[in-house]
């Protein structure tokens, strides 16, 4: 077991994530079961993360960069506790607002209002807390007139608005932001970025941020970690890391 230290908000200790993927393509479920019964189904191991190791201090704002399929979302999911690493360990201190897969905890048959209570409960808020902050949540999402509509009739951007609004109604200790914000329109994206900035400026919130926009990473983060094909390539000041990343792929 790796040593942990209370001075860090996030500790990623030598994390590897191994997925088992089918070694050949199967066209349907029947083919899958026949192969399974005949013991002809083989899997190969795929390392989505390979010995990734970094620590984040409280109040630090860190960007994760890397090309498609490099393991950034997998890393965030391990930190958020959605996935358990195959090897190594992750430790987060304090409350965490994971803005990943926005709306994953929603029930599309329920109304937006019901989903606010449902999702709030999943985030650990009490009913009294949600009652007290309901208007703030609705106002930030700017969806007052759509509260009684079932979520299945919402657009993906509207779902993202509600989900972001609930998750950030209170200042978390650790904020994890995936690219999911990109489904919102440009005005809402700017509004989200402003709220994230307010958290950052408070100096108390630790932020881990994934974006394909290097400009956005440079604008928001102080430090960046570059993960490429599951391997940690670089960890350092944001300008240096983005420069090296651009030099390789730009
Ligand atoms: N549940 C899973 N089972 C098998 N493979 C998976 C699973 N989840 C992710 N992967 C694989 O792990 C790799 C890393 O995926 P991940 O989504 O973390 O990349 P990413 O860096 O976030 O990519 P992008 O920039 O495209 O969002 C990919 O090759 C992906 O196919």
UniProtKB/TrEMBL annotation:
Domain ABC transporter: 24-249
GO CC entries: membrane
Statement: the UniProt record of this protein carries the keyword Nucleotide-binding: yes
Record-linked InterPro entries: AAA+_ATPase, ABC_transporter-like_ATP-bd, ABC_transpr_TagH-like, Bact_Polysacc_Export_ATP-bd, P-loop_NTPase
Gene3D superfamilies in alphabetical order: P-loop containing nucleotide triphosphate hydrolases
GO molecular function, one term: ABC-type transporter activity
Keyword set, alphabetical order: ATP-binding, Nucleotide-binding, Transport
Ligase recorded as keyword: no
Membership in a protein family: Belongs to the ABC transporter superfamily.
Protein name: ABC transporter ATP-binding protein
Lineage: Bacteria, Bacillati, Actinomycetota, Coriobacteriia, Coriobacteriales
